[in-house]
Amino acid sequence: MNSESIAEKVRNQAMVAREAARRLRSASTVEKNSALLAMATALERSSDDILAANQKDVVAVRAKGLSAALVDRLALDQKRLFAAAEGLREVAALPDPVGAMVSMGRRPNGLEVGKVRVPLGVIGIIYEARPNVTVDAAGLCLKAGNAVILRGGSEALHSNMAIVAAMSEALRSTALPEQAIQLIDNTDRASVQALMRQSGLVDVLIPRGGRGLISTVMENATVPVIQTGEGNCHIFVDKSADLNQARSIIINAKCQRPGVCNALETLLVHREIAEDLLPSVAQDLQAKEVTLKGCSKSQAIVPSLEEATFADWGTEYLDLILAIKVVDSLDEAIGHIEEYGTGHSEAILTNDYTNARRFLEMVDAAAVYVNTSTRFTDGQQFGLGAEIGISTQKLHARGPMGLEELTSTKFIIYGNGQIRE
Amino acid sequence: MNSESIAEKVRNQAMVAREAARRLRSASTVEKNSALLAMATALERSSDDILAANQKDVVAVRAKGLSAALVDRLALDQKRLFAAAEGLREVAALPDPVGAMVSMGRRPNGLEVGKVRVPLGVIGIIYEARPNVTVDAAGLCLKAGNAVILRGGSEALHSNMAIVAAMSEALRSTALPEQAIQLIDNTDRASVQALMRQSGLVDVLIPRGGRGLISTVMENATVPVIQTGEGNCHIFVDKSADLNQARSIIINAKCQRPGVCNALETLLVHREIAEDLLPSVAQDLQAKEVTLKGCSKSQAIVPSLEEATFADWGTEYLDLILAIKVVDSLDEAIGHIEEYGTGHSEAILTNDYTNARRFLEMVDAAAVYVNTSTRFTDGQQFGLGAEIGISTQKLHARGPMGLEELTSTKFIIYGNGQIRE
Hints:
Distance between the termini of chain A: 58 Å
Strand content of chain A: 15-25%
Largest interface: A-B, 69 and 69 residues
Strand order of the largest sheet of chain A: 10-9-11-8-7-12-13
CATH topology of the largest domain in chain A: Aldehyde Dehydrogenase, Chain A, domain 1
CATH class of the largest domain in chain A: Alpha Beta
Number of domains of chain A: 2
Helix content of chain A: 40-55%
Structural class of chain A: alpha/beta
Largest sheet of chain A: 7 strands, parallel
CATH superfamily of the largest domain in chain A: Aldehyde Dehydrogenase, Chain A, domain 1
Number of strands of chain A: 16
Oligomer: homodimer
C-alpha cells in the first residue's frame, strides 16, 4: 500500500472510532464492566490462537537476531496472557471516573454551574513490541468511556491482531460497539504519521516507548500528545541523612529493576558525608554488579570508580550503571537536577526539615520524594489503580496516569431563563 | 534580522524566562500580589507614554486602511488602560492557586503521597492586536507563578512595548525577577515559529485569535498547545420549551454581543413548535437588524428568510447573522451539533426532563446549557475570576480557563526509609 491509501485507511478507522466514542458517551458503568469481563474471558478462551500468533512473532524476531530484551518484552505464555486478562477484571473493579461531579455551585443569578467528568473521546496509543499493552490500554480506555486506536510495533503484529480479534469478538456479545477497540494493522511508518495528524477525530495521543518514538510524535503530531517517558532520576544524600537508610534506598532504587524509568541513574552526595557513605555504598552496589562512574571527588574517595564524563550526567542508563557526584550543597544538587533531570522522579534523603521543604518546592518533577526510593512512581503504588503510563509533561496529567487522566470535563449549566446583561 | 538570528533571540528570551520561572517557584502569595499592585500603579503612572505609543500604532493601522473593528480592538484611552490596571488589582485579590493540596493520603506501606498544585513554568501567549491582553495575560500568568513570553500582533507593537516597559519597571522594585514578563519585539512570522518550537524551555503555548492563527500553531508547535477559539454555538428549542423564555434567550444569545465566541450562530427548532415560535422570533431578530438564513422548512414558515446553504451550518458569523433549521427530533438536533459544532457552547431549551438529560450527556462541548443563554461561557460568569481564554480542546482544560488552569501538579512523597519490594 502506498502512504496515501494507508492514510486513507487510518482516517476511516478514526472516523469509525469517533462514532463508537459517541455511543460510549452514554455507556453505563455496568455496560462497561460487563464488556471488560467478557474481554477477559475471551482472551483466556482464545489463548491457543493468541499464543500461536505470538509464537510466529517471536520466531520472526529471533530470526532477525533482535535483542533478548526485545524478545522478552514480546513473548507471551499462558501465565502472562492470563495475567493480562486478570488485569481487565481488576480494571472492571476500579471506580468509574466518568460522571463524577468535580464541582457544582449556584451563581448569583441562579445559574447552577457544574463541572462533570466525561470521556476524552478517541485515544490513540502508539507503542512498541509489548502485546500486554494492547490489553491494558484497551481496558483502561474502555473503562473511561473512550474508543481506542492501537498502533503497536511491527514485531508484535500477529500477537496484536489475535488479541484484538478476541476482544472485538467479546464486544460483539455486549451492549457496546466492537469498533471501540481498533488496531492499525499496517506497520509502515506512514500509519503512525497518519494517526498523529487526525486532529478533529482523535482527541489525544499517548506514545509509549523510547526517546526516538516520543520525539517523533512530539515533532509531528497535530493531535494533542501526552508525553511519557524518560526518567533520568537522581537521589541526593544530604549531610543529615541516616546513612544506613540511605544505603538501602540507593540499592533499591538502582537495582530492584534497573530497566525502568523510575530507577536511579545519578547519585548526588553531600561532600560532608561522602567519605562515610561512598565506600560502603560502592561496595554494596559492586556486589550487585553495578558499574560505578564518578566525578573526581568521588573517585578520590573510591578509587575503583570509572571516570564519569559530561555525557554521563545526561544519560538514562536503564541498566546496572550508576553515576556518582559529590556536591557542596543542597543548592548545587538542585541545580544539577534542574540541568540534567528529565522531570520524572527525584529524591532527597535528609533529616533536615528546611532542606526537605526546599527540595520539594524547588525540584520541578512529576514526583519528588523525601527519604524513600524513586521506584515508587507508579499508578498502583500511588493508589491510582492501573496505569496507562507516566506523564513527564506538565499539561493535563503529570506523573502516573490512571483512569481519571483518561477523561476530560465539561461544564453543564442549569438555568431557568437567565440572559446575560 | 534573518530568521536564524530571530530564532536565536527568541531562544535566549525563553532561557531567561525559564530562569525567572525557577525563582517564581518559591515566590510567596504576598510577593506576587505586591508585584501585581506595583504593575497596576506603574501602568497608571506611565499612561502618557503608553497612550502616545498606542496612538502611533493606531495612526499606522488607519493609514494602512485596516478595518474599524481592528482599530477598535487596538485603541486605548485612559479609561481602558485604567480598567486594565484595575484588572491586575482584581487578580491580586483572587486566591493563589499554587500550593493547594489536590489530594493527600497514606499508602499501606506508610508512604504519604500528596498531589500539590505548582506553576506550569513558562507560558507563551500568541495573540493579535489587543494591547489589553498584554496586561491581562501577564497578570494571570504571574499570579499563578509562571513566567510569560508575550508575542502580540505587529499592529500593537509600540503599545505592547510601552506596556511591558512599565510592568518590567514595576517588577524591578519588587522581590520578583523583571524577566518574569517578556515581550517578543520582533513581529516577523519567524519569531512565532521560533516560540512554538522551544520545547524544553516553554511549557505551554496559548494562542488567542482567529482560526488561521490557531491552526498554524496546532500544525507547527512542538510545545504543548491549549487550543482556544472558535464557537459555532447552537440553541435547540425543543417542543416542550417555554416559548416566551425561548424568545428572550435567543435574542440575548445572538444580539447582546454578536462578535464573541459564545454568541449564537445557528438556531435549531423542533418542527412541532416551529410555526408558533419562528414568526415572532424572526420579527424580534429582524427588529434588531439580524440577517436570518433558513432551511426550506423555516423559509416556508417565515418567507422573509434568506436561503441557508450548506456552508452556513459550519460558519461562525461573529456578526448579526443567524442560521435557522427546523429539525424533526432531539436526536436530529444532537446529530447536527455533532457534525457542525466546534465544541464550545450549546444549549437546549426544554421542559422535558429526559430530553434535558440526554442533551447534557450526548452533546460534546465545553459548556452545555439547559434553558439559558450560551453567552454565559466566561470565567467571570462561571465564578473562576478572570479568564485567560476559553479552551475548546479536551486535554488539561476545557471551557473558560482561570488561574487554576495556568498551573500543573506534582506528586510529593514523604517516606521514612521505604523501599520497593
